[in-house]
Design a protein that fits this description.
Strand content: 15-25%
Number of domains: 2
Oligomer: single chain
Structural class: alpha/beta
CATH topology of the largest domain: Rossmann fold
Mean pLDDT: 93
Number of strands: 12
Strand order of the largest sheet: 3-2-1-4-5-6-10
Shape: globular
Low-confidence stretches: 329-333
CATH superfamily of the largest domain: NAD(P)-binding Rossmann-like Domain
C-alpha cells in the first residue's frame, strides 16, 4: 500500500501533526521517521503507535531512506535541528540535518518519482523584520543564526530542485510554535515549567523582542491545507498576524499561573538576536482559505494545563541531558530561550 512519510515525526511539531492526522484523517497509511535525538521522543506518539509504522532513521542516510521512501505517495519533512542557542554552540548538527538531510530527501524524491514533497520551514530565514513591515514569501532571505542559515539553505535547495529537475516540492515558513510536547528549552514551556518549579525566569536583553505565536494545532491545519491544495513550487507563510513582546508573554504566563514577577531575571542578550519576526500570511489565507482558530489566550491556557498534567515528561527531560547542556552553556544560570 502506498504510504505518506512524515520525517521528524517524533519531535514537537511533527508529533503533533502525526497525532492530528491520525485523529482527523485516519484513512492515511503513515510511516513516521525520526532519529530520536535529544528532542525526538516516542512518548509523543504513544497514543498512535498502533496506527503508524515507525522507523528510526537519519534523513541524511540515503540508503536507509531509499527503502523507507520507495512507494511513498509523498513526504512531509519536519526533521530539523531547531534551537538557535544550540546552533551558536555548534553548527555541524544543523548542517547535517537541515542541509544535507534535505538534499538527500530531494534526491530520493526525484529518483523514486514521489509525487509530492513539503519542506517545513521557519520565519527566521527572513531575519529581523523592520517595524511596520510584514515579510512576504518573495522577500529576501537574511538569516542571523546558524540555525536560520541552515533552514534558508534548505529552502534554496528545494527551490533549486523544483526549477532544475521539476521536483514536485512546496515550502511552508511558520512563525514561533507552542503547545503540547514542546521541548522545555523553548520560551513558553521553559517559562511554564520554571514557574511551576519556582525557578527564575531568564529573559534575554530588555525582553522587547517581538514574536508571532502560532499554536501547533493551527500549524498542523495549515500544513494540511498546503499539502492538499498548495501549488507546486510555491512558498506559504504561516502565522497569526499578532505580534507579542517576549516580556509581555512572560508576564502573561506569570498572571495565568498566579506567580510573582520577581521571578523574572534579565540576562545578557544572545549574539545576533533578531528583534522582530512578522509574516504576511495573505497568500495562505487568500489562496487556500486557511485561518488560525486558536487565540493566544486559549492556546496558553491549554498549554499550561498540558504541562501541569504531564509533569513527569518534562521533569525527566530537565533533569537529564538537557540540564547538562544548558549548564555547560550558561554556567549556573537558568537558560533564556525562545
Amino acid at each position: 500500500m502506498s504510504h505518506l512519510v512524515i520525517t521528524g515525526g517524533a519531535g514537537f511539531i511533527g508529533s503533533n501533526f502525526v497525532n492530528w492526522l491520525c485523529r482527523e484523517h485516519p484513512e492515511h497509511d503513515l510511516v513516521v521517521v525520526d532519529l530520536l535525538t535529544y528532542a525526538g521522543n516516542l512518548a509523543n506518539l504513544e497514543s498512535v503507535l498502533d496506527q503508524v509504522r515507525f522507523e528510526k532513521a537519519d534523513i541524511a542516510d540515503a540508503d536507509t531512506m531509499r527503502g523507507i521512501l520507495d512507494g511513498a505517495v509523498g513526504v512531509i519533512n519536519f526533521a530539523a535541528e531547531s534551537h538557535v542557542d544550540r546552533s551558536l554552540e555548534s553548527a555541524a548538527p544543523f548542517l547535517h540535518s537541515n542541509v544535507t538531510g534535505v538534499q538527500v530527501l530531494l534526491d530520493l524524491v526525484r529518483e523514486l518519482g514521489i509525487p509530492r514533497f513539503l519542506q517545513i520551514g521557519t520565519d527566521e530565514v527572513y531575519g529581523s523584520t523592520p517595524a511596520d513591515v510584514r515579510f512576504s514569501e518573495g522577500d529576501h532571505l537574511n538569516p542571523s543564526s546558524p540555525y536560520a542559515a541552515s533552514k534558508a539553505s534548505a529552502d534554496l535547495l528545494v527551490n533549486a530542485a523544483v526549477r532544475t529537475w521539476g521536483v514536485p516540492a512546496l515550502i511552508t515558513r511558520a512563525s514561533n510554535n507552542y503547545g503540547p510536547w514542546q521541548f522545555p528549552e523553548k520560551l513558553i514551556p521553559l517559562m511554564i515549567t520554571n514557574i511551576v518549579e519556582g525557578r527564575p525566569l531568564p529573559v534575554y536583553g530588555d525582553g522587547l523582542q517581538t514574536r508571532e505565536w502560532l499554536h501547533v494545532i493551527d500549524h498542523c491545519t495549515a500544513v494540511w491545507a498546503v499539502w492538499t491544495g498548495g501549488e507546486i513550487g510555491t512558498i506559504y507563510n504561516v502565522g497569526t498576524g499578532n505580534d507579542v513582546a517576549n516580556i509581555d508573554l512572560v508576564q502573561g504566563l506569570i498572571d495565568l499561573l498566579g506567580a510573582s514577577e520577581d521571578l523574572i531575571t534579565y540576562v545578557e542578550d544572545r549574539p545576533g538576536h533578531d528583534r522582530r519576526y512578522a509574516l504576511d500570511i495573505s497568500r495562505l489565507t487568500t489562496e487556500l482559505g486557511w485561518q488560525p482558530q486558536i487565540s493566544l489566550e486559549e492556546g496558553l491556557n491549554g498549554t499550561i494545563e498540558w504541562y501541569r498534567q504531564n509533569r513527569a515528561w518534562w521533569e525527566s527531560i530537565k533533569s537529564g541531558e538537557y540540564r547538562e547542556y544548558y549548564e555547560r552553556m550558561y554556567g549556573d544560570r537558568d537558560q533564556p530561550a525562545e
